[in-house]
Amino acid sequence: MSAWLFGTHGLSVADWLQLFGHFLLLSLLAVGGAMSTAPDMQRYVVGERGWLGNAEFGDSIALAQAAPGPNVLYVAVVGFNVGGLLGALATLVGTLLPSTLLTLHATRWGERRRDGHAVRAFTSGMAPLTLGLLLATSWLLFEPAAGEPLAWALAALALAVMLRTRWSPLVPITVGALAGALGFAG
Question: Helix 73-112 and helix 54-66: axis angle, to 10°?
Answer without folding.
Answer: 60
